[in-house]
Description:
603 residues, alpha+beta, four-stranded antiparallel β-sheet, 10 helices
Amino acid sequence: YQRRVHGVEEKINENTSSFALPKGLGEEAKTQDQQSSKTQKQKVKLQVEHFLGEINVAGKEEQEVYDKGIQVEFYDGQNAPMSEITPPRPRGKLIGEQGQEESDALPAVSNSRRVSKIDQNALASYSLLLPGLDLNKAKVVPQEPPQQTQKLTVDECKTIMKTKNYADFMIKSTKLVEKALDQPIDNLNSTISEEEDDQDSDADDQSDLVYPIIKFFDKNNSTNRVITDLKWSNRIHELLLAAYSQKEEGNINDPVGVVLLWSLSLKSRPEYHLYCQSPVVSANFDPFSNHTVVGGLYSGQVVLWDLRAKQVPVIRASGHTHPVFSLNVVGTQNSHNLVSVSNDGKLCVWNLSMMNAPTKTVELKIKPKQQVQQQMTQDINCTSICFPQGDTNNFYAGTEDGVIYLCQIHPQSKNDNIIEMYEGHEGPITSLSLHSQLDNAKNLTGLLVSSSFDWTSRLWNPRVSTKSMITMEAAEDYIYDAQWHPTLPATYMSVDGEGYLDIWNLLQDTEVPVMHYKTGINALNKAQWNHDGSKMVIGDSHGSVNVLGFHKNKVGINQEMVDSFDLFVNLSLIHISEPTRLLSISYAVFCLKKKKILKTQLI
């Protein structure tokens, strides 16, 4: 009300310099002539009483309502109107002397803003316009006492606690609280001391290249299950996915297929539980959505979970007749597809927005060498695939017979999907990984590393030769997975059936890994780097998921080593005998130092 009153004063002062407001509204009232002030007071009194009568403060019978408020005129000595204003309107309803409620006496602003009780300050504002006004004539509506909340009985509380909405609310709320409690304290002293302690412990640790961070295990869903797939989320970097096989020794009520989503901020339990009616062989995040997870089942179905909906798949689609061993989402934000392969010799392309049936099915077949004349073909039983970065047509496929094929989804000629064949392994291929594009090692892009049941991992340069260039034979059991590091050149990791994690730096040594890390007694069958290569996740045959840290700065890579490795890899001399390999490496380093030979000319 003070803003309204001062606004009145400013408006009147702009229109006249000789008029003064009543006492209490401005300093100019003190300087006016006594006779003029008395006359003006009488006129203002009449106008304000008329206004108060219209809102029925004094119980007037006749009422007059205006849509835009009630105007009060002020006059000078010659009774000439000088300005028109709308005085402040009290908020609420007034009751006259006769006890009748006058709710329509004031112009209504809106029903949502109408107040049922009047503030005493609203009436007091009118005493500023008219000193001596008797406020007892205006009666205030008594405030209704607040309704007391009805207490629930014990049975009613138990009934509410059994509802699904209550359970979902509690699960979501407790996860947020637990994440907040797990966050480190932002204290300067404690942070500095923790960093110093970490540095001291890393210096004394003999395996400082790799260090444990956290272990995930769910007693109800992970016990006696094998990890079949591991993936990091590309959009939420702290979230990872673990797919599990069927429980070896379980009861009929246990879910057959399980996918758990773990968060680094939630250490005691999974972030999400996903179930299905068949063992999950492969699973992956949708890189263009925060709430979609796809899975390949042992029954040959491809399923899709929506994290916003429920724990069971929202879509089930049939396209294969054998287990789906690999799933890849390729393309861009506006145009992307899901590609699935199985050992039934089929490749299916799916549209994630319409998964009733595959949009394209490719029969992967090849003509055996001994039966070329009979024009007979045999299926390619794929166990893993990988796409070059940014490519949606060409891909590499590893098979059960130990051969790697370069294939096309959309071939130039009909029924000619196989482009090239790379032979070398003597057992089924378990994984394929392509070297990422790096600014300091552009020529290493496209190098392929593969792992197999023949206890070896091999390095391939598909641009130069169809034969493997390096064979790493340090393992003494099946090698189940091998993955290139996303940011370091010529560095990859592999896991085997003895429970060892091997870190290979091919710039330093091609015979022995730079790190031979033992995680436990169980076999390791899956491994995956995170987006920047600072962490890795490995899964074993008993359902445990281990997150390990990786010190990238301790690998010891310099540009000279990268250039020399780039040169002799492109020369395709590494697969020769050991003396020739050492000679070629020395010669490559000599050429780089003297700058006498260009790598492009040698290639």
